[in-house]
């Protein structure tokens, strides 16, 4: 399958590879001590993953540097001809930490049956859209986004890979009522990383000293993760970092450098409409 080809599962656009392996993904058997990190793409997944890995390793960065992040924490629905996230996960000793971008309704049911702990991270729609645009440009595994103006429309239509941002963040928010989900926000992690890292630590049932937490804050800062070959995807053959680095800017408010006034108005209207039926809200003015 040529890179960038997509198809659909239950109306959600996904990489064709993923759709072709859908039965295998859907029937994945989670274990009760699995931890799942879930997100819409570009919400701060890698950041959250590294925080979790460092907490699990009591802040020991050398241990976290044992392998690239996608090998330490398999990407559940990732599929290639010779390997897949499911194969990686099945070959891994417990306790396992896994990553997914699936919308809540497409998560393999065994995660609910086994009552696995889940950490979800969300990012405000405007910055999320900008980050995703650059990611689709640099990642050969995803469709070309076209121009910014074209992408703006595609993104709002929800016909992007992994589906509508609105449905994704709302769906996982709702699930929090009936399931152990820690719901994090990129903007809060930027504002007070130590407070948010402590939340993750408590959710994982760990108790680390202040100086260990400070070390984790340092080692998961944007600049340090950008330099760390185990977190910056520098060796991923699908990614062309010359077009746009994976660790691109790491800020909030970059949307202001991309949105026209008309686009901002359109998005705000869209946001009001789509978020009317949820208690979830985001900070976009920073
Ligand atoms: P930008 O493109 O806005 O820079 P994901 O891991 O979900 O793919 O998200 C990637 C986004 O998170 C990118 O956003 C990336 O730069 C940002 N990011 C990664 N590590 C970060 C960190 N330690 N601090 C802040 N932002 C980070």
UniProtKB/TrEMBL annotation:
Which keywords annotate this record? Cytoplasm, Transferase
Major subcellular site: cytoplasm
This protein's GO cellular component annotations are:
cytoplasm
SUPFAM superfamilies named in the record = P-loop containing nucleoside triphosphate hydrolases
User: Is Transferase set as a keyword in this record?
Assistant: yes
Q: Which Pfam families match?
A: Sulfotransfer_1
Q: Where is the Sulfotransferase domain?
A: 32-278
GO terms, molecular function: aryl sulfotransferase activity
Listed under GO biological process in this entry are:
sulfation
Q: Which reaction does it catalyse?
A: 4-ethylphenol + 3'-phosphoadenylyl sulfate = 4-ethylphenyl sulfate + adenosine 3',5'-bisphosphate + H(+)
E.C. number: 2.8.2.-
Task: Report the subcellular localization.
Answer: Cytoplasm
Please tell me which top-level EC class this enzyme sits in.
transferase
- So which domain of life are we looking at? Eukaryota
Coiled coil (residue ranges)? none
InterPro entries with a match to the protein in the record: P-loop_NTPase, Sulfotransferase_dom
Family as reported in the entry's similarity comment: Belongs to the sulfotransferase 1 family.
Instruction: Report what the protein is called.
Output: Sulfotransferase
Q: Which species is listed as the source?
A: Myotis lucifugus
Name the gene that codes for it. LOC102440664
